[in-house]
Specification:
With 206 residues, the protein is an alpha+beta fold. The protein is built from three helices and 13 strands. It has helices at residues 2-22, 41-44, 150-157, and strands spanning 26-28, 37-38, 51-57, 67-74, 80-86, 98-103, 113-121, 125-129, 133-134, 140-145, 158-159, 174-183, 194-205. Strands 2, 5, 7, 8, 9, 11 and 12 form a seven-stranded antiparallel beta sheet that branches. Strands 1, 3, 4, 6, 10 and 13 form a six-stranded antiparallel beta sheet that branches.
Length: 206
Amino acid sequence: MKILLTAGLIAGMMLMAGAAAAAEPINYDFKNGPDGWMIPDWAMEQKDCVGKSVEVSTDEAFGGTHALKIMTAYPGNDWTAAVIENDREVTLKGYKHITDRVYIPKKAKTDLLYGRIIVTAGPWFFIQMRTPVHLERGKRTEIKVPPDDGERGELLLWQCNNSDECLLAHLDRVRKIALCIKYNVSAKNQGPKYNGPVYADDITIE
């Protein structure tokens, strides 16, 4: 009996240690480079994707000394977006939030920029935040979403065809995490052009 109890305690401690290790925070602060974040090839091939380049910069750093500077060219006369992506495969089990911090310079002269987090999970399901976050010029905006909000809350947070193709069912196999900065205009509702930087920093999974 004592042996069984000891074995059970050891097994329980191992499970707890494994869960703690799995939930160790992942932080991208860009002090040592882009940390795998880039404009994906598929975005470079799309006319409505207007991210032109990515580099590490000391401008507009949020939590440390560096930020990721994304050069963009929004035409202002149609829906367009800049996308950066990290294809490091991770498990999101045990994590509470994915957070991106974004800075839009005042000189952008548009209040129609919005950000959302996108994940590619399971057998390549493309899953994005249902509601984008408005990005206010001249301020750092936090985009934050839980990867696991339970079955009842999941489809309210993530845009999916059904629960089988959504994030909760595939937390153990997240292939990519992306940040999308969209210019929410149309041919009938146009805005000013913006050719300039957007900054991302302190991207955290915790």
